[in-house]
Specification:
The protein is mainly alpha-helical. It has one domain (about 1-75). Helix content is about 80%, strand content about 0%. It has three helices and no strands. α1 runs antiparallel to α2 (about 30-50), α1 (about 1-20) crosses α3 and α2 packs across α3. It starts with a helix and ends with a helix.
Length: about 80
Amino acid sequence: MFPTMIGTVVIAGLVGFAAEKTGFTHNGYLQSIIICIGGAFLMYFVTLMFGVGFRSPGINAIAASVGALIIVPFHWRK
């Protein structure tokens, strides 16, 4: 369980960095990484509690990170 959580954080951080590096988002590196880690943690705990998600924890982390990057900035943008 603990290695899966650490892997989730690492994958989410890489997705946040890559999204900012490629120009997918314009939040800033630290902000994008924090958004991705938050989304990945949320999906990780939802998967633990309810069993909802993909089979692979890595795919869950990637999908949750990209989803959080799409939802969070647009929600707060005016």
